[in-house]
Amino acid sequence: MRILLNDDEFSLERGETLVALLEQLAMRDAERIAIAVNDRVVRRGDWPDHRLNDNDRVLLIAPIQGG
Question: What pLDDT digit, counting tens, does each position of 41-61 carry?
């Protein structure tokens, strides 16, 4: 299955959840990110059950420090 992850094609197993995606990406500091799927923010509590579908657009949003 293919998704768009921050506008780049990404392959993963069919029916993977958002938590499984984060594990595959080795994202250890996931508590500081937000995730949108197909332009809709997914609540953190829903990540373990939110299954991804072919051609979903996933956006990982992380805070950026600046000045």
Answer: 999 999 999 999 999 999 999
Q: What three-state secondary structure class fits 45?
A: helix
Degrees to nearest 5, angle at CA 12 with 11 and 13 = 140
The CATH number, out of the four listed (3.30.70.20, 1.20.120.1760, 3.90.1860.10, 3.10.20.30), of the domain defined by the range 2-61: 3.10.20.30
pTM of the model: 0.87
Q: Give the strand pairing for 34-37 and 57-61.
A: antiparallel
